[in-house]
Design a protein that fits this description.
The chain has 624 residues and is mainly beta. The protein is built from three helices and 41 strands. Strand 9 and strand 10 form a beta hairpin. The longest helix is centred in the first third of the chain and has 58 residues. The radius of gyration is 41 Å and the shape is elongated. It comes from Proteinivorax hydrogeniformans.
Length: 624
């Protein structure tokens, strides 16, 4: 049997005693904590109460200082602050407050400004050499940083540095960047000067220096501090961008003209226009916007068309652009970009890519306003833009190029527009031509970009980056080529000598634009093959394809039929094919009596005036 034992009386008494001691200790500590907390609250309240009294007395003393002539003070004290040239004798009045618990507050109030140490003074300027030189890397001999440190106050030490924006990693490099200072910069060329002299000094950053790199932003900084310990930072107020050349010569000239505000650049009158070309270290870029948060309709900036010639038969203008990704992600109420073609007085035609309405609108422009719709194209349904849609939506994210071919015609200017982009493999994806006629000549090109956000944001914080922008779009390049047509007869495109109007088989001018201009031009025989860069049949040719004959045309760029085409019989036909990788265009005066097939696929001709033929395809033209 187990021996069962309980607690003895002594053990019970000892346990109760221990519990009582612990309980008494806990209650005492807890009570003391409550008392201390309560006492602390009382002390805080008393402190704020006396602080309020002091503040009220300070206000009264300020009034006494202001009315000192009527109420002379009798209780002023005088104290001395600082030493040396900053020594000041200051008249003060004393305020004191006694608070129970042996606490005592004392405040000295003065109406005399105390002399403080002066900040260092520096004259600093950063410029290119020579002056008025656009900062293309290959043109710039050096950047010049000039500075002069004033002798008063005395500067103990000065430090100078160059700052250069950091290069982005290749896998994250964007088309444009906006590095913030100083985190987005690295410094080099640091020099420290002990007690520098008061005369002009120049620091050069020159070609050949390993630290002088293109496509970067630069700052020059002087940081002096005085014997009294005051520190100053002095940098060029505008960051300096050194650009590598990119884009066509016409584009580089446009960038320079905007930068220097040359006379041949016309900004929209009576409006605030933002035009900047020094915001992108990776590529010469034109950024545009204006004061309103809506479509400006007409161009914001126009310039004479480079290589424009009254004698040229046509001009080809190519404009490369990209909508800003951040603006696209914001799903703005209004957002778009436009290219203008027309006359100097802003009369012409505007092609506007409207993001919100998924639309390409082509309008006549008069006095910077829409004055008549020429075409309105739905980018989500028009077959010509099928290559640019992804899952039923137009792909606004790509960098596009708009190609405009203008030709002089009796009625004014005939324009053929094509949109294209380069895919990841380097191939070109192209829309079919959009043809229309303008009653203006095509002597100027203009640009616009717009969004429903302020171009320069409204900052509510005191510290911000002065280069932050709400970009709507970016223009990256412009190429212009004047097209001159050469007579086909002079290059052997007609049979024999004399005035024969029969086309000669084997005629070849791959590097020339050939104009066939003899009346009643005719293709005879079984097959006639001709080759050219671009081929045009004028109105008076009245082109005829004889019985059983095939006119085979091979071109680099395109074919223009400004004339009626007739066929001898059902076996007569025209076959057109590209010779290069890029697609070609074929324009017609009329398709009313013609049948078109591309690789045996019949093309619906209702409303068509032009067609695009891709590399490897063949266009067959026969009579209906």
């Amino acid at each position: 049997m187990l021996d069962r034992k309980g607690l003895t009386l002594i053990e019970v008494i000892i346990s109760m005693a221990l519990i009582s001691i612990a309980l008494i200790t806990f209650l005492g500590a807890f009570g003391q904590g409550i008392l201390l907390t309560s006492r602390g609250a009382e002390l805080t309240q008393e402190t704020f109460k006396h602080q309020g009294k002091i503040e009220n007395e300070i206000l009264n003393i300020k009034d006494d200082f202001a009315n000192e002539a009527e109420n002379p003070a009798l209780d002023d004290l005088e104290i001395t602050v600082f030493q040396g040239e900053y020594k000041s004798d200051v008249r003060v009045r004393e305020i004191s407050q006694h608070i129970r618990g042996n606490r005592y507050f004392k405040v000295l109030v003065s109406n005399v400004p105390i002399m403080e140490a002066q900040a260092p003074k520096v004259d600093l300027e950063v410029s290119l050499y020579p002056e008025n030189q656009f900062p293309w890397y290959d043109n710039i001999e050096n950047i010049r940083g000039e500075y002069r440190i004033h002798s008063s106050p005395v500067v103990f030490q000065n430090r100078i540095r160059w700052y250069r924006s950091k290069e982005e990693p290749e896998n994250t490099k964007k088309m444009y960047t906006n590095p913030s200072f100083p985190g987005g910069y690295e410094y080099f060329g640091e020099i420290e000067e002990e007690q520098p002299n008061d005369f002009l000094k120049i620091q050069y950053l020159s070609q050949g220096d390993i630290n002088f790199i293109g496509n970067r932003f630069y700052y020059f900084e002087a940081r002096p501090y005085t014997l009294a310990g005051r520190l100053g930072h002095f940098r060029n107020s505008e960051r300096m961008l050194i650009l590598n050349r990119a884009g066509s010569q016409e584009w580089q000239k446009l960038i320079e003209d905007v930068y220097f505000e040359n006379e041949n650049i016309s900004f929209r009158e009576n409006d605030t226009i933002y035009a900047e070309v020094m915001q992108n270290p990776n590529h010469p870029t034109l950024n545009l916007d204006w004061k309103e948060n809506k479509d400006p309709q007409g161009p914001l900036l126009t310039t004479p068309l480079p290589q424009y010639s009254e004698d040229a038969f046509s001009h080809t203008t190519k404009v490369k652009w990209q909508l800003d990704p951040r603006a696209l992600s914001a799903d703005l109420e209004q957002h778009g970009i436009g290219v203008f073609i027309g006359e100097n007085d802003n009369k012409g035609t505007m092609m506007t890519f409207d993001v919100q309405n998924e639309q390409l609108r082509i309008d006549s422009i008069t006095n910077n306003q829409y004055s008549g719709e020429i075409k309105s194209i739905n980018l989500l349904s028009d077959e010509r833009f099928e290559p640019f849609r992804d899952q039923g939506k137009f792909d606004w994210d790509k960098t596009y190029q708009l190609e405009l071919v203008s030709r002089k015609v009796t009625e004014g200017t005939e324009i053929f527009a094509t949109l294209l982009y380069e895919d990841v493999s380097g191939g070109v994806v192209k829309s079919e031509c959009i043809g229309f006629t303008s009653n203006h000549k095509f002597s100027h090109v203009g640009f616009k970009a717009f969004s429903s956000e302020n171009y320069i944001p409204n900052f509510h914080s005191e510290v911000h980056n002065q280069y932050d922008r709400n970009y709507a779009a970016h223009f990256y390049d412009m190429k212009v080529q004047a097209e001159h047509w050469e007579d086909g007869a002079s290059h052997g495109f007609y049979q024999g000598g004399g005035n024969s109007s029969n086309i000669r088989d084997g005629a070849n001018a791959y590097d020339k634009n050939i104009l066939m201009d003899r009346e009643n031009t005719k293709a005879t025989g079984n097959e006639t093959t001709i080759k050219a860069n671009c081929l045009q049949f004028s109105k008076r040719t009245n082109l005829e394809i004889s019985n059983n004959n095939t006119l085979m045309i091979k071109v680099n760029e395109g074919v223009i039929f400004d004339t009626k085409i007739t066929f001898g019989n059902n076996s007569s036909k025209i076959i057109i094919e590209p010779t290069e990788k890029t697609p070609i265009f074929v324009n017609f005066e009329s398709l009313e009596s013609l049948k078109l097939k591309v690789n045996d696929r019949i093309i619906e001709t209702n409303g068509l005036t032009s067609i695009t033929i891709n590399n490897g395809d063949k266009l067959e033209i026969t009579k209906k």
